[in-house]
Amino acid sequence: MRTTATLTKLCKMVFTGVLAVALATAGFLPVSALSDGAYVVNRTTSYTNPETGQTVDGGTNIALGDSMADSIVEDQVLVEQTGGKTYVTIGLGLMSSISNVRIQVQSADGSYRDAAITQTGSCTRIGDTCNHYRFEVESLDRLISPIIYVDPMGRDVQFFVQLDPSSAQAGTGNFVSEMIGAQTTTQTQQPAASEPAQTTTASSASEPADPPEETSSTASQPEETSQAESALWETESELEETSAPSGAVTSSGLSAAASSAGSGMIAVIVIIAVVIVAGGVVLTVILVRKKKGK
C-alpha cells in the first residue's frame, strides 16, 4: 500500500515537471500562423545579417547602413494569407537613386533564393518615390533580404528585413492588396503594370488627394530631403574606403546574440525535461522491483 502511494506521488511529480517545462518553452515557440486575410505588420531592418552579424555586400560602415535600410523600407508591411500560401508586400523608397531591385527570401534550411516580385503600386516616402513589391514567402518567421543597386554608390547594397507577426492588424494600410481593396491612401498608388514608377509618382503628385501620413512632415521639402539621402549614400562609399570598424557592438549583433541565447535556453529546458522524465522512470522501475522482491 505504501509502495503504491509512493508511485502515485512520483508520477504526480513527473507530470508536474513536464507540465512546467511545457509552459516555460511556450514563450519560445514560433508565432502561430495567421488565418486567411490581409494584415499590416511591423518590421525591423538591419544592414548586417541578424544571424551572423556580418554584412553580405562587402560594406563596412554598419551604422550608416542600418540608418539607410531603416529609411528605405516602409514602417509597415502588408501580409496576405490565403489557401495555405503567404504573400508579403514591402515598400522600398529613395527610388530616384535606385535603378534595380531584387528580393531574396530565406528557406527552411537557412539558404536564400531570389523571389519572383511584382510591383503593385507606389507612394511617396521622405520626399521620394516608394515602390511596393509583392512576393511569396515560406514563413513570416524567415528573413527577407532586398538587394538594390544604388546609383550614387555604383554597386548593389543588400540588407535584411525581419517581420513581427505578433503586431499584425487586419487591413491593407498603404498598400494595394490582391485579396482586398486598399482601405487608405489609395489615391497615391497606381498599378505597376500600366506605368513605370516615375510616371506613377508624377500623376499622383498632380492629384489633389492628400499624401500618406508618413510623408506629411517632409512633403514641404522633398527635393532637399532626397538630395540629402543621396549625399549620405555617397558619404558611405567614401567612408567604406577609409574606415572599417571592427569589434563594434551593433543592434544586429545583439539581436543575433539574443537569438542564440534563446536557442540555448530551449536546449537546456529540453534537457532538464528529459532528465526529469528519465529519473522518474528509473525510480519507478526500482520501486516496482523492490515490491516484487518482497
How would you state the average pLDDT, rounded?
73
Question: What proportion of the residues is helical, as a percent range?
Answer: 25-40%
What fraction strand? 25-35%
The main β sheet shows up as: 6 strands, antiparallel
- CATH class group of the largest domain: Mainly Beta
Intertermini distance: 13 Å
Number of helices: 5
Extended strand count = 10
3D shape: elongated
Number of domains: 2
CATH topology of the largest domain: Immunoglobulin-like
Could you characterize the architecture of this molecule?
Helix 1 (2-26) runs antiparallel to helix 5. The chain folds into two domains: 2-29 and 254-293; 37-248, Immunoglobulin-like. It has a six-stranded antiparallel sheet with strand order 6-7-3-2-1-10. It has five helices and ten strands. It is α+β, with helices and mostly antiparallel strands and 294 residues long.
